[in-house]
Amino acid sequence: MARVYNFSAGPSMLPEAVLKKAAEEMLDYQGCGHSVMEMSHRSKVFQSIIDGAHDLVKELYNVPDNYKILFVQGGASTQFAAIPLNFLNKSGKAEYIISGRWAKMAYKEAQKYGDVRIAASSEDKMFSYIPKTTREDFRPDADYVYYCMNNTIYGTTFKYIPDTGDIPLVCDVSSCFFSEPVDVSKFAVVYGGAQKNVAPAGLVIVIVREDLLGNAREYTPTMLDYKVHADAGSLYNTPPCFTIYMCKLVLEWIKGFGGLEEMKAHNVKKAKILYDYLDSSKMFKGTVVPEDRSLMNIPFVTGDADLDAKFVKESTEAGFINLKGHKTVGGMRASVYNAMPIEGVEALVEFMKKFEEANS
Length: 360
Ligand SMILES: *Cc1c(COP(=O)(O)O)cnc(C)c1O
Fold this sequence. Notes:
Blueprint: E1 5-6, H1 16-24, H2 44-60, E2 67-72, H3 75-87, E3 93-98, H4 101-110, E4 115-121, E5 144-148, E6 150-151, E7 156-157, E8 169-172, E9 189-193, E10 204-209, H5 226-231, H6 241-257, H7 260-280, E11 285-286, E12 297-301, H8 305-317, E13 320-321, E14 332-335, H9 342-358
Parallel strand pairs: 1-13, 3-4, 3-5, 5-8, 8-9
Antiparallel strand pairs: 2-10, 6-7, 9-10, 11-12, 12-14
Helix pairs in contact: 1-6, 2-6, 3-4, 7-9
Bound molecules: pyridoxal-5'-phosphate.
């Protein structure tokens, strides 16, 4: 069977070159006679893999020396609890910017641990825009301000970094990780699940400023204490070895692409093809205000639920899979992460044009 164009929001497409390389190395990793899947995480050869992944994160994301890069498990959702457990430790107050469902879930989880407040929200208009904040929106004694950079479900993205003054800033970058450069020095913590843009599921990368470690609440589960993972070089227990290996291959692929500036230029060009069509189409409409549109997740609707369903069915049959929108938005969503080639989006737009012609 030919490979389809997979527009899944996650787990999502991986670069074909990466899958091929992993297949080549599957039975015998670089002459060691066994697979990465079968490897001891305490072996020299695995150490070189995790070190390689670490160094590529540092290089590509331009991580300053006073930050630790951790490979942890439990998905982004587990970090919703780990963040307050590690950082809600002085005033016990935290400020959340609610720009979508994932930020809201993080907020709900954090509420278990302290005086956690919504500082800004775009829920009034179904999260179709990004709230604009200023320093005055946050309580000055808050332990941190939290937001989600790219809203996977609603297709909005922050094009500014919230100004929080001296308050540490925590950010979930799951669905825009390594899609463009980020100034890590502006953040206390940046973290993201790997399965959107970086690797298969099973891995979260946490980039945390070193001086913030070591103040987790006493009852914090050991596995959620970032200092434990920092001190152990992310080898406190068995890490998701194969996913870390895949992450290394993807990061090598991004490096070969020319790094994050190049990746961003590619993503801008790719997203523009679909947005330009949505803006010109009489049938399909984007659901997000133009200035806050995501480069990664592009929701769109026809305005007619039956027509949406027909489109999803016919596009799937034509080899464009996982275009059905999230249940809370309806319609369609095309997730066009790094690994989606330009040709995939061009082919989708051609298909949409034909569908529009045939159904109007
Ligand atoms: C997918 C996603 C999550 C949840 O990730 P899990 O690994 O399933 O817990 C959290 N935040 C964002 C922005 C996401 O896109």
